[in-house]
Amino acid sequence: MRKLVSVLILATMGSSALAQDSGVAVVGVEGYEIPLSPVALYRALGDRIVSGQDVIGNNRSNWSQVDSALPSSRIGVGIATGSDEATLLDIVRWGCREASGESRACMKVGLRQDRLIREGAEYAGVRFDATRVSQPVPAYTPPPAPPAPTYTMTTIDTQPLAPLSPAPETARVMESVASVASVVSARAEVVASPSAAMMVEPAPMEAMVEVDSDFVFATRLFAARGNYPPKDYAAYGLVAFRSQATADEADRQRHMHICEAFFATLTDSGSSDAPVTKQMVTVWPILAENPSRLPDYPENLLERLNTPVREEGMCDLAVTYYDLFMAKVAIKQVEAAQGAALPGAGPYLLAWSPGAKKGQRDAVVLVADLENVQSAADAREAFGIWREHIERDATLWEDGFTEPGLKVKLRKLLDRYGDQLMKFVTG
Amino acid sequence: MGNIAKLSVSAAVGILLGIAAILWIEPETAGGSALLIVICMALTIVVGAIIKALRGRS
Predict the structure, then answer these.
(1) In the predicted structure, residue A290 carries a pLDDT above the cut 50
(2) Which residues 379-418 of A have a C-beta within 8 angstroms of B?
(3) Within 13 Å of residue A135, how many CA atoms lie on the same side as its CB?
């Protein structure tokens, strides 16, 4: 059974709530702080997402989509008795207006009740997944005098948790507890003052890079022919365009947006602390070095691209030296596995599980169509959904007869052969 | 006539089983759903026939 990581997040909302950021800060048990902007809070806690004329239900469960420094597990927000839920809602709607510019539609945005836990609910044993903290976050400094209500955010964990000892009503206490897989853990209890929570000694950073064995991480890799399929990975994905970027500015921009989202949303495979068997790698195919045909091929291109940080001009190179042939091969392999042509003009995100099964007809194939992706925001959102899908449905990528995996495999088989049968019967 | 009646009972059980399987597997195409019902019907008819044969022996 999939374990869900827990995290304690403490949010204070004070008079600064309407300042530059939302005034809501996420604080890990190790004592560092990640401030959330109103937009981030809206994406996390708003019950619907406003996008142009469209309003869709918000079912994001990965906090890492809201802020890449946060863990991917589900997080709830606990509201202390007597605090003002309306203020939280105001900030969420403010974030909505900032994100969408649709004041009217944003007035209908409410709070996700599945993430709200009133005080009195049992608080979970917690653990901060700090592998996603790409850089040290400054230690939390208690606010001078928080006059406003206190919110406590915590992950919703499906596992039964040890009961907490009774807490004093006026003090927040955190204590380290032994954890599975040596990951930093702590137990939290609800109280009044957030500053008291920060009295806990921050854990050393090196202790935070342990990875829970149940997670699958979506990573990225720029690879040339011969480097793939990377057999050891949990799953293998590929960004597949149907054509190279043309001289047309809009077309090239679209390729660039997708490349930038690829960089921004997925973590670099080589820099990830997760073992490759727990990585679902998405590959951007790059032409192999060929001095006779590509005399201007940049030196150490793959090394330059496979870094955790995007630098100026990287996407330009990645788009210019995109290996269209490998993309065409991948598209044909997916079409063969599905028994039908991929609809639309693409590009696509294609994935096989396990990685070594790429091209085989019995592989589980995941397809995301990016045909409607035009802007940078579209691309980021598409990759965010892709990452969420991969990381949340980790069981999909595991071998063996796990129920979700079996279900997906059966579905794919039925859809493939059922459609063929229907076509045969109906002529 | 009796055989046909038993066959249709098996087929009806198969349809119900197929509907339950559709709810669980959630095929994305109509063809997938139809195939699932056909498979379930075939399965229950075969199982029904086997049970009948076993009963006939004893």
Answers:
(1) yes
(2) 407, 410-411, 414-415, 417-418
(3) 4
Interstrand relation of A364-369 and A348-353 (parallel, antiparallel or unpaired): antiparallel
Q: What's the predicted TM-score (pTM) here?
A: 0.43
Asked if residue A402 has pLDDT above 60, the reply is: no
CB A231 within 8 Å of CB A355: yes
Instruction: Tell me how far CA of residue A26 lies from CA of A70, A113, A221, B6, in angstroms.
Output: 9, 19, 30, 65
Strand, helix or coil at A388?
Answer: helix
Q: Between the CA of residue A309 and those of A135, A206, A262, what are the distances in Å?
A: 12, 21, 12
Domain count, chain B: 1
Phi, psi (rounded to 5 degrees) for B42: -60, -40
From first CA to last CA, the distance across chain A in angstroms is 45
Tokens of A46: 């708003």
Q: Is residue A178 scored above 70 in pLDDT? A: no
CB neighbour burial string for A274-288, b if at least 16 within 10 angstroms, e if fewer: bebebbbbbbbbbbb
Indicate whether A126 pLDDT > 60. Answer: no
Count of all residues that appear for chain A in the document: 427
In degrees and rounded to multiples of 5, residue A250 shows phi and psi of: -65, -40
- Read off the pLDDT band of A355 (50, 70, 90): low
Q: Tell me which chain A residue has its CA closest to the CA of residue B27.
A: A411
What letters, b where the CB count within 10 A reaches 16 and e where it falls short, cover A114-129? Answer: ebbbebeeebbbbbbb
Question: B31 to chain A, minimum CA–CA distance in Å?
Answer: 4
